[in-house]
């Protein structure tokens, strides 16, 4: 799997890959790409901080941040070391460990939307800030494993970035598996 390179290509390559932790396996169905300081929607836009330091690499590391004081968000670092970029994991399907996911999410039943949303993905995997900088390509802990890519892709603008410039708001850097139901706000996406 190719993680290093232009962030939008790395984002597409992450669709269909597996995230594995403690008996839970998720298949990635929706992602968003975030570039470096030139991307006004990126956490790297203000330079390197203690919070976003994992974005500076190396590729294949986890970057987690706490959003709205409620949810951890998992990103996969994709830029070469020293050049920040990351891909937010927006949605996934549960392949293994559904009972564990239900317990972690405090959900009554498994639905197609069980892990549709970045906060739900991190919750399903039992993640928190201690996974910041974790090597996703090494065995143990949280692992990113190869999986078959989707047959059809959707693309469209990223969500929740009203603070970004109009050009960055319109950038079609949200990608999804066209055949998955674990995708949010599908109407804003188009074949891509």
UniProtKB/TrEMBL annotation:
UniProt keyword terms in alphabetical order: DNA damage, DNA repair, Hydrolase
Origin superkingdom: Bacteria
CDD domains: AAG
Top-level enzyme category: hydrolase
EC number: 3.2.2.-
Family per record: Belongs to the DNA glycosylase MPG family.
UniProt-listed NCBIfam families: 3mg, PRK00802.1-3
Protein name, as recorded: Putative 3-methyladenine DNA glycosylase
Organism: Geothrix oryzae
């Amino acid at each position: 799997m190719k993680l290093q390179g232009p962030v939008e290509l790395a984002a597409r390559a992450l669709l269909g890959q597996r995230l594995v932790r403690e008996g839970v396996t998720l298949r990635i169905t929706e992602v968003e790409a975030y570039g470096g300081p030139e991307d006004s929607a990126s956490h790297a836009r203000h330079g390197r901080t203690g919070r976003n330091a994992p974005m500076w690499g190396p590729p294949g590391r986890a970057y987690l941040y706490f959003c709205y004081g409620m949810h951890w968000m998992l990103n996969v670092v994709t830029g070469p070391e020293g050049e920040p970029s990351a891909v937010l994991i927006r949605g996934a399907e549960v392949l293994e460990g559904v009972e564990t996911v239900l317990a972690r999410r405090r959900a009554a039943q498994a639905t197609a939307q069980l892990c549709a949303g970045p906060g739900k993905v991190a919750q399903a995997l039992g993640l928190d800030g201690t996974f910041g900088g974790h090597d996703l390509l090494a065995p143990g802990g949280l692992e990113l494993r190869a999986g078959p890519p989707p047959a059809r892709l959707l693309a469209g603008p990223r969500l929740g970035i009203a603070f970004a410039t109009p050009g960055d708001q319109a950038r079609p850097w949200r990608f999804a598996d066209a055949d998955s139901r674990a995708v949010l706000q599908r109407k804003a996406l188009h074949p891509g």
